[in-house]
Write a structure and sequence with these properties.
about 45% helix, homodimer, six-stranded parallel sheet, 434 Repressor (Amino-terminal Domain), about 325 residues, Rossmann fold, elongated, DNA-binding, alpha/beta, six-stranded mixed sheet
DNA sequence: CTGAAAGCGCTTACAG
DNA sequence: CTGAAAGCGCTTACAG
């Protein structure tokens, strides 16, 4: 144990023969204070390794210096590396500005965990990492009047949101498949309730429209969650002579690949495969998998930076649309 | 916006014509208080949806009602579903007792993020999710004198620790391979610096010892991190006529499987494969992969429960060793 | 059983 | 430029 008497601002004031006010000002840099006095205090602080009690500071300012990070709790999702990588970027940015991250796993149909951290005054702002078309969390946060930003788009323009351009990304990927002369392209994705999936679907349809072709509705599968569903879908697609399968996340893609492997269907020989967001889930696959890449850590950083600006009352750009990169690889060669 | 005037204990006292002390007692249940008075206060609180300011409460008690969750920041690790599942269990348990979880991603060689949350008084206790043989975090937390528990074992008996029995698990798995008459079994694992990997190695050696055979040192590979290393290792193992490969995590296993696939080596026909902790990384693999399963969410729950007991000053059992299950599947048939 | 008062460790008008 | 004092919203001896 180190000497445990937890130095306070009062101790320092007494020791130095100044007032607590003065010490406080020296630390915060706010308010007029003499150069010499400031230096004296700062030196003392450094020497004695004084750490202000952030809780007390927070109480006085009605702040917590915490931000809430909400991640979706549904099983399939929680294991996607996406959220961990977001968290990495957020954590890094937050800690640079002396904020900490309170994590809250919330179920799609129950936002009580989110409610708790805001009504208990545990956070100064919130980052939502996935948006629903009908989003109870968004509605709640708006009503509560607490600063928040969403990772992922919302229909609501009043909401500060940061997203990658999933629509363009999916359009471009689809276009490049169409350009190869493939026209029986299937799309498999998760819950339609998520904005991101909706955008990707939009991009897929955009590409078909631009090419003057009609996408076949029977080749679009949404709300797919489980491996078994994928198996059945791939089976029926093969019967229809599908040429290419685009999946909306790497989990679905690995299900597709497994099914194809089991049936000894060659990729890309007989069927081409492409996916979104290449994570470690597919990193070592053979053949390598064509996919759309996003800088998820940067996404987290941007979201966090924006939220902190809002909390500090600075101006922020309300919407940001980040880029993407398409990596064409063996699976669509 | 809802009516925003954030009810305080003072408002309630005034409204009800009692003292703040009384209101406080009614809420906390501590201290003598008349039945009627208590009910009156409680009713008012319920009706007006009063939420105590946890920060203020914390300041008065020098508590934060936060626990710190430390997860390792190295790239390869952070994507393992293990930590997310831990987090799920911890978050669930914490929120039941009105605690929240502050997350801190710390790099193996830099514990400053951990230091920050404890010196800033942001947490009442800490959970470490992976232990090193030489663990700077453990050393620091001991010195700081803050309650903490580790998920994963430590050599240090004074540390409260919760773990699955990795040693027995690995021994048993290895034994069952040996019992099949396989004796050229390879072991591939991550950093030796982690206690968990050390334990697994121990179990592997135990099994050989019990069987009276000698494990071949050239078949044990530790400190393996990247996919390319795995490729090289598998290549050399094949030349030596290896019969079975056991990997210490699902990431390494998927690398092994990819390499084998690429070389068109049949599993389990020519080489058998088994792994630890079956996560979604391997969930849909064909053939299905033999592996050791742990209830990671329970691990998180137990760790959290224990930490909260320590914080509340209750008695706890200092060490807990949780079980495991071995699922023999197609890959070792 | 109940309350006045001091205190947790800061910040911030206000006055000088 | 500096300080005394009130305040953030709670808790908790102490006294009655």
């Amino acid at each position: 144990m180190t000497d445990d008497k937890n130095l306070t601002i009062g101790d320092i004031a007494e020791e130095l023969g100044v007032s607590k006010t003065t010490v406080s000002r020296a630390i915060s840099g706010k308010g007029r204070i003499g150069e010499k006095t400031r230096e004296k205090v700062l030196r003392y602080i450094k020497e004695h390794d004084y750490r202000p009690n952030v809780i007390a500071k927070g109480l006085a300012q009605s702040r917590t210096y915490n931000i809430g990070l909400v991640i979706p709790g549904s099983y399939h999702l929680v294991e996607l590396p996406f959220f961990q990588n977001c968290m990495l970027g957020i954590g890094k940015t937050a800690s640079m500005l002396d904020y900490d991250v309170l994590i809250s796993v919330v179920m799609p149909d129950d936002i009580s965990r989110l409610r708790r951290i805001v009504t208990n005054h545990k956070v100064d702002g919130v980052i939502l990492t996935r948006t629903l078309l009908e989003d109870a969390s968004v509605a709640y946060l708006k009503e509560a009047g607490i600063p928040f930003v969403t990772i992922g788009s919302t229909g609501d323009d009043a909401v500060v949101q940061i997203d990658n351009d999933h629509r363009s990304a999916c359009r471009e990927l689809t276009e490049s498949m169409l350009a190869q002369g493939l026209d029986r392209i299937a799309l498999i994705g998760g819950s339609q309730g998520y904005v991101v999936n909706d955008n990707r679907l939009g991009g897929f349809l955009d590409a078909y429209e631009k090419s003057g072709q009609q996408p076949v509705r029977e080749q679009i599968f949404l709300d797919v969650e489980k491996g078994e569903e994928v198996e059945a879908i791939v089976g029926s697609l093969l019967q229809k002579g599908i040429e290419c399968i685009i999946t909306m996340d790497d989990y679905l893609c690995s299900c597709v690949l497994n099914t194809l492997r089991q049936r000894r269907i060659e990729v890309p020989g007989r069927v081409k495969v492409a996916s979104f967001y290449d994570s470690s889930l597919l990193a070592n696959n053979i053949p390598s998998i064509t996919s759309i890449q996003f800088d998820v850590e940067e996404l987290g950083e941007r979201a966090c930076k924006t939220l902190l600006q809002m909390i500090e009352g600075e101006m922020t750009e309300p919407h940001a649309l980040l880029g993407y990169r398409i990596s064409l690889r063996e699976s669509t060669a």
